[in-house]
Design goal:
Elements (H helix, E strand, L loop, with lengths): L9 H4 L8 H17 L14 E2 L9 E6 L5 E3 L2 E3 L1 H14 L4 E6 L5 H13 L5 E3 L2 E2 L2
Parallel strand pairs: 1-7, 2-5, 5-6
Antiparallel strand pairs: 2-3, 3-4
Helix pairs in contact: 3-4
């Protein structure tokens, strides 16, 4: 004789199968939130700079990775301050995801030309064909 006794109650006793949909719906919402959070629609440089003005400034339509350069020479990518040597790896990772993408260097108007040229050089060494410098359109 068995120690356990099985008792059928509710719908299962009548032969019906009860499928609980709550865990499935919870899982769908968790996946939806995960994809929304991880999707990056615009990659910002993450630094507030005073852009120089240019009469020929144009709006770019392709996906861009923005690399910021402050007046002090600090480099920012996606809101994080990084070393100049890490720019090449970040740009290469971006181009692996978006091969037709470009890099936009957002440099402060008071930044040194040497710092900006080094950032552009690292972007080109990573394989970026389209590297531009951000500017405001002059009135």
């Amino acid at each position: 004789m068995s120690c356990f006794r099985y008792v059928r109650t509710g719908r299962a006793a009548r032969g019906g199968v009860d499928i609980n949909m709550a865990p499935l719906i919870d899982m769908v919402f968790i996946l939806l939130i995960f994809f929304i959070v991880t999707a990056s629609f615009t990659r910002e440089a993450g630094v507030d700079v005073q852009r120089p003005e240019a009469a020929t400034a144009e709006q770019e339509q392709r996906p861009l990775l923005q690399v910021g350069v402050t007046a002090e020479g600090r480099v920012f990518v996606e809101g994080a301050s990084i070393d100049l040597r890490a720019v090449r790896a970040r740009v290469a990772a971006f181009l692996a995801v978006s091969p037709d993408g470009g890099v936009l260097v957002v440099a402060d108007r008071a930044s040194r030309t040497d710092d900006v040229i080094r950032v552009i050089d690292q972007c080109r060494l990573a394989g970026a064909r389209n590297v531009g410098i951000a500017a405001q359109r002059s009135e």
